[in-house]
Amino acid sequence: MVQYQRLIKKGERLRVSVEEGGSGATAVAVSGGGYFKSTKQKFLSIIFLSFLCCCYIFSFSSFSLLDAFNRESEGFGPYEPFIAPLCSGIPNGTICCDRAGFRSDVCIMKGDVRTHSASSSVFLYTSLKNKSKTPQKVKPYTRKWETSVMQTVQELNLVYRDDNSSLSGNEHDNNICDVLYDVPAVFFSTGGYTGNVYHEFNDGIIPLFITSHHFNRKVVFVIVEYHSWWVTKYGDIVSQLSDYPPVDFNGDNRTHCFKEAIAGLRIHDELTVGSSLMLGNKTILDFRNVLDRAYWPRIRGLIQDEEIEAANKTGKRIQEDGLLKRPKLVILSRNGSREILNENDLVDLAEEIGFFVEVLRPDKTTELAKIYRCLNSSDAMVGVHGAAMTHLLFLKPRTVLIQIIPIGTEWAAETFYGGPAKKMKLKYIGYKIKPKESSLYDEYGNDDPIIRDPKSFTRKGWEYTKKIYLERQNVNLDLKRFRKPLSRAYDFSVKRFGPVYSIH
């Protein structure tokens, strides 16, 4: 745990340096502002650079060692075209914002970067000889096109400051570095639609991976509109993307200093990672590998606890081993809206076909590691379209996802979950219900436009879709009709693993 202290002697400045691989923080008293390195560090850096340049000449692909030093000495370098293409190759002492993206703005700051939470600002200290340098503003959230939600997101001021100021009592003196990092920063917001699991992954966690993966965890996350519950919920994932504790931008009044920073996150599409837009051609499967690393330590602990408990219960272990010879189907259960009204009958049907069935009822308090364990060990998942389908990210590639699609939700079901499932290498089956399988049929009848022509309502906008087809609709499956996709899922699972599933 890094312990921070603020003052040492009157008239002296304290710099707390947080460095990679060290034993903690190093406090250095300095009488002047800015950054410096010791002669020994410079000498070692020159030797290290010479070695790495040789490696670079012989193998461009082996950039992982080189990138650490490149970032130390030259900034983002080759990563900029992937993060903010319009800001590629910007010099030190520069703020550049790439606003070409439809979904988000991303700004890059190079040089002496310092936080100033009291004014919602991030300062870049540099020479102001060029008076044309203008400040920038950015809302570091990935739904730029949605005016209503963006109005609720905190805006950051990215401001130039003159690094030649040295008079006592000026703004430069008041913004001395309390914590100095030798790694970059990424600023992002956990406001907006945070609280909905789809948006938490789609608008936050996956874009955070996209924007920061190339730093190989040598990066600090500075969170605007920080929520402690978010950090608790997603801390296992965040720790796989950064070796440093996240900074609460508004709650931590200390001045955090960096040599470079990204404000805003890059997003590609719904629940996905565009390989052509990623350094190293990373895909959504690489993101899933991050989830594996994040959750497996906790899952191992859960398994050990259960084994200890089971050791005192005669025969339980033998019974579970027998069940594992059947493909496992997880039914993602809902309550309140888009509920499967005949869920118990669905369980009976799935067991008759040959599945071992587990009904998963997650809520906002359910530990993600437990959800991950359940789905990661499954062969198929069934669920009704909705935010909980985001958990398809927890399924292993080449397993089956059956999405039950209520009337009026066809476009959203395919866009938000069907398409991403295919990119995840899942066997995707979309089951569009018939009008008689919808609770709306009993309410409106076959001739009402809500049943007969859903597009006449959904084309009016999301609010119509939400109020009618999402909030007021449940599902009563025609099990004779649903047997077909369920049997396909079973056959696919058996063929995937072969004879191990032949006994049931």
UniProtKB/TrEMBL annotation:
InterPro entries: Glyco_transf_61_cat (IPR049625), Glycosyltransferase_61 (IPR007657). It is found in: Golgi apparatus membrane. It comes from the Eukaryota. Its main location: Golgi. The chain crosses the membrane at residues 43-66. Residues 316-402 form the Glycosyltransferase 61 catalytic domain. This is Glycosyltransferase 61 catalytic domain-containing protein.
